Amino acid sequence: MKISSKNIKGILFLFTSAFLYSLMPVMMRTLGSEGVPPMSQVFLRYIFAFVAAAIYLFIFNKEKIKIEKKDMLLFAVATVFCYSLTNLFLTYGILFTQISNALFLFYSNAIITPVLGYFILKEKINNRKIAALILSLIALVLLFQPNSFPTWKIGGIFALLAALGQSLYIIIRKILKKYSIGIMMILNTLVGVIVLGLMALIFESSFYVKGSLFTLSTNTWLLTIFFGFDNFLAWFFMIKGFELFEATVGSVILLSELVFGVLLAILFFKETPTLITIIGGSLILISSLLIILKKE
How do residues 33-88 score in pLDDT, each as one tens digit? Predict the structure, then answer.
């Protein structure tokens, strides 16, 4: 079946975003091993994401920021909860429960997003989309094999908050589609710097007071800068992709991040995928193909 050039562009945007997201766990592990605490990791990378957003908005697009009063509340939810805190929620979800459980709950945003899209945006759910969502859910179970449910507790709550934040952002972005991607990103990253900066200074003050920040190696700083630009580009391409696709379609395609993650784990950490992992990754690709090949 012929796929339109618009759909091809959207697919490329989402796959690019998925790949850029898949790089983040590798950088999180590396920065953590270099002694950069969680809040400060997010804060520092948001600084450089803000720089990237400013370059895009003021140099390439040359836009002025103008927000209507009626949209202020949605912008506040999008920038503070959905952008600034989502990565932090995921980090603490991983800290307070098993990593596999936290990631399983976080990636449930691929299921949450279509549900929100159905009720809030009135997007239609056809049989092919339902099949893709079911396959995606089975893939998540196979990849992460969630267990020890009594241990979820606070960690599970944080992971679910991260999933909800990711999903809500996609929905709010569609509601605020009259605003350019440049305006959205400059406000996201600016609020992210402020919110996470204050939290890092309060809860991780020793990292700054004792001078640990200034003893980081040049390679650590370069990685942090790269992480910030990667953060900006991952969100940028995600937003561009969801501008061209419905929430259901985009959320399933974005799950390909997990496939990239498996490949990067093999490359960087010499991890050998199990048969179940391979089956799970294959189901994600099949679910993506199910909706890609559907002429939307």
Answer: 899 998 999 999 999 999 999 999 998 888 888 999 999 999 999 999 999 999 88
- Expressed as residue numbers, the domain containing 231 is 5-292
Report the number of distinct structural domains present in the chain: 1
pTM of the model: 0.86
Q: How far is CA 216 from CA 23, 85, 226, in A?
A: 21, 25, 15
Say how far apart CA 147 and CA 190 lie, in whole Å. Answer: 38
Instruction: Give the C-alpha separation, 250 to 129, whole Å.
Output: 11
Token pair listed for 146? 């969630």
Q: In which element (H, E) is residue 119 found?
A: helix 109-120
The continuous run of DSSP H or E covering 229 comes out as helix 218-244
Question: What's the rounded Cα separation, in Å, for the pair 96 and 221?
Answer: 28
Count helices and strands in the chain by DSSP H and E runs? 14, 0
Calculate the alpha carbon distances from 75 to 43, 44, 80, 169, 245 in Å.
Answer: 20, 22, 8, 10, 22
The tokens for 238 are 């995600």
